[in-house]
Design goal:
globular, single chain
């Protein structure tokens, strides 16, 4: 999922201890996975309908790029505010409150009839999404501790599966010619049903044993952390571009009909989800440094294919390669940063993810502006450069096992 700076800090902060609930570890794991899954479905429902918004409002690429800026802006607005709420109320209560808010905010998007309205609703969607995201990642940490095994990657894999499922649902409903408002309310109903049936299995918390050391909002990273932040930036910029522009690319460049353009987004998400579940095996086989180099090369090759040969079959293969390439990069980068011996884990990850998160803020709008000046096809060539940059930068980092 879209992993904010604060999310990653929480992943390494032993804040509150989960109370042993009546639910078994497997039930807790399923419940948390279900929340990750539904958040992925909600996000994909929006992303898969971006071409519809663009066409219905008559937006050019630059105008759409400016509007897309609103979603990450909303996320940033509440980044640390939502963390304080989660710490005060506990992630279970926050998740029970914010998951419905996020789903209902999705339905507001369908009410937009002008660009400024869509931007305003995207800010709301970003705010509620970040509130839910912080609570969900905190609950994920508790669930991992309660389960007794490192299963966090499987939670994020559930988000990716939800994202793919949301794209496929949208593909089906578009072909059935169901209106966007009805589509989004179907998704909201599914999310609300999940809250009703699975929130009771989430973990409660005791009060923290210690008070976490206060740190500045942002500390300038040094050495290896700068390079890791650059790798995270390139990967997140690629992800953000694919989330927001892949369906439009298949409609405008590959020339698929509107009701089939979601195939590009779905193919990317399928391989991204698969790669996340395969990540542990691939790291064991190739090692982190080699896998990062391979991943960067795969991104470049995939986008190169889609740009040079923009027909449906080659473009699908290209987008699948991009999904595979980005799937394990950010988790590996955070793991490397967290094991840095010179900086505490939480602080190191915060530094790296602070750099990377700006990619979500500026990447997708930048694609729109470049596309307006040249074409969407050639603006996507930037992603190939990001992949090559990942492969190059990783060669400069020696402190990786």
């Amino acid at each position: 999922m879209e992993e904010s700076t604060q999310d990653q800090a929480l992943l390494n902060t032993p804040e509150n201890k989960p109370v042993l609930a009546s639910s078994s570890p497997k039930q807790v794991r399923f419940a948390i996975s279900a929340f990750y899954f539904m958040q992925g479905v909600c996000f994909a429902s929006w992303a898969s309908r971006i071409p519809t918004f663009k066409a219905s409002m008559g937006l050019n690429d630059a105008e759409l790029g400016s509007i897309l800026f609103a979603l990450p802006a909303g996320q940033i607005m509440t980044m640390f505010f939502s963390a304080k709420l989660t710490t005060h109320f506990g992630s279970k209560k926050m998740l029970k409150a914010t998951a419905p808010m996020y789903a209902i905010a999705l339905t507001f998007l369908a009410l937009a009839t002008a660009g400024w309205q869509l931007a305003a609703f995207l800010v709301l969607f970003g705010i509620t999404g970040n509130l839910c995201n912080i609570a969900l990642n905190t609950q994920g940490v508790a669930g991992e501790n309660y389960y007794g095994k490192p299963i966090m990657s499987s939670f994020h894999g559930a988000w990716s599966i939800g994202n793919l499922t949301g794209a496929l649902i949208a593909l089906g409903l578009v072909n059935l010619k169901l209106g966007m408002y009805a589509h989004f309310w179907i998704i909201a109903a599914l999310s609300l049903t999940n809250v009703v049936f699975n929130s009771g299995k989430l973990l409660n918390y005791n009060k923290p044993d210690t008070v976490a050391e206060k740190t500045k909002f942002f500390t300038m990273p040094q050495g290896i952390l700068v390079l890791l932040g650059l790798i995270a930036f390139c990967s997140m910029a690629t992800e953000g571009t694919m989330f927001d522009w892949s369906a439009i690319y298949f409609e405008d460049v590959v020339k698929l009909p509107h009701n089939r353009a979601i195939i590009g987004y779905a193919s990317f998400m399928f391989m991204m989800a698969s790669g996340r579940f395969l990540g542990v095996y691939l790291i064991g086989k190739f090692g982190r440094k080699n896998l990062l180099q391979i991943s960067g090369a795969i991104i470049s090759i995939g986008m190169g294919l889609a740009v040079v040969f923009p027909n449906i079959f080659v473009a699908i293969i290209g987008f699948m390669l991009i999904g595979l390439g980005v799937s394990s990069i950010v988790p590996m980068v955070y793991s490397i940063a967290g094991n840095n011996k010179k900086v505490p884990a939480g602080k190191a990850i915060t530094m790296v993810s602070s750099i990377g998160y700006f990619a979500f803020l500026f990447g997708p709008p930048l694609i729109g502006y470049i596309s307006q000046l040249s074409s969407l096809r050639y603006s996507f060539g930037i992603i190939s450069v990001f992949g090559l940059l990942i492969t190059f930068v990783i060669t400069k980092i020696k402190e990786i096992n």
